[in-house]
Design brief:
Largest sheet: 7 strands, mixed
Helix content: 40-55%
Structural class: alpha/beta
Distance between the termini: 48 Å
Number of strands: 7
Mean pLDDT: 96
Order of helices and strands: HHHEHEHEHEHEHEE
Low-confidence stretches: none
């Protein structure tokens, strides 16, 4: 198995099952032109997020980590009528690119982009009475993943789906002695999921154009008293 094969299969899946889309293609092109890192979800992964949100009938979605807005567009398009998506981005340059991409997709009135470190903006959301969210997608700085989980739970309801990207790290997640803060961040996040009685969780490994990584998926099966 090689990266070339994984990429070829990704292209096959995209060509067969992910229809061409001008707004999504433009978002990728604008992100590349602006020099944003090419770490957005792949087209098949974007459609997976879209389908999961649609299956939930999601009316409120929270995204932690916007980058160029590619996954934001996929998720926002899945919202039920009148739904709303809030996306959090720490980097001003990324936010500027994503705001333009979201507007080009016709979603400026559906998506609210908040700029600042998520560890600062998440408490603001809670204090302002936002939530509960039907789906929460975490795709931001990996060392902070353990800090984001408690806030995701606080902003959830019974039945909320919490999805976290990049939790396998090319298999390095099994390396307990790794000196990579990103690996240790997702290891701790996965351990917290495993110990958390309010969720039922799993993780899946993925290969494709983005290489070898994976998603963690957690269903909220109980909520804390303060969430009621």
């Amino acid at each position: 198995m090689t990266q070339e094969l994984w990429s070829n299969v990704d292209r096959y899946i995209s060509d067969l099952l992910v229809l061409p889309d001008a707004a999504l293609d433009a978002a990728l092109q604008a992100s590349e032109a602006a020099g944003l890192p090419p770490i957005n979800v792949s087209p098949p992964q974007g459609k997976l997020l879209h389908l999961l949100a649609r299956a939930l009938g999601a009316h409120a979605i929270l995204e932690i980590g916007t980058l160029g807005g590619y996954s934001t567009i996929w998720l926002a398009r899945a919202l039920s009528t009148g739904g709303r998506l809030i996306t959090l981005e720490a980097d001003q340059k990324h936010a500027d690119v994503s705001r333009a991409n979201i507007a080009r997709a016709g979603l400026a009135g559906t998506v609210e982009l908040r700029i600042g470190r998520a560890i600062d903006t998440l408490p603001q959301l809670a204090a302002q009475g936002h939530g509960p969210f039907d789906l929460i997608f975490i795709d931001a700085d990996k060392p902070s993943y353990p800090d984001y989980l408690p806030w995701a739970l606080k902003l959830s309801r019974l039945g909320t789906l919490i999805i976290a990207d990049n939790v396998i790290r090319k298999g390095e997640v099994v390396n307990a002695s790794s000196e990579d803060a990103r690996v240790q961040g997702v290891r701790r996040f996965n351990e917290l999921l495993a110990a958390e009685p309010r969720v039922s969780a799993t993780a899946i490994q993925t290969v494709g154009g983005k290489g070898y990584d994976g998603f963690a998926i957690a269903l909220v099966i109980a909520v804390a008293v303060e969430n009621l």
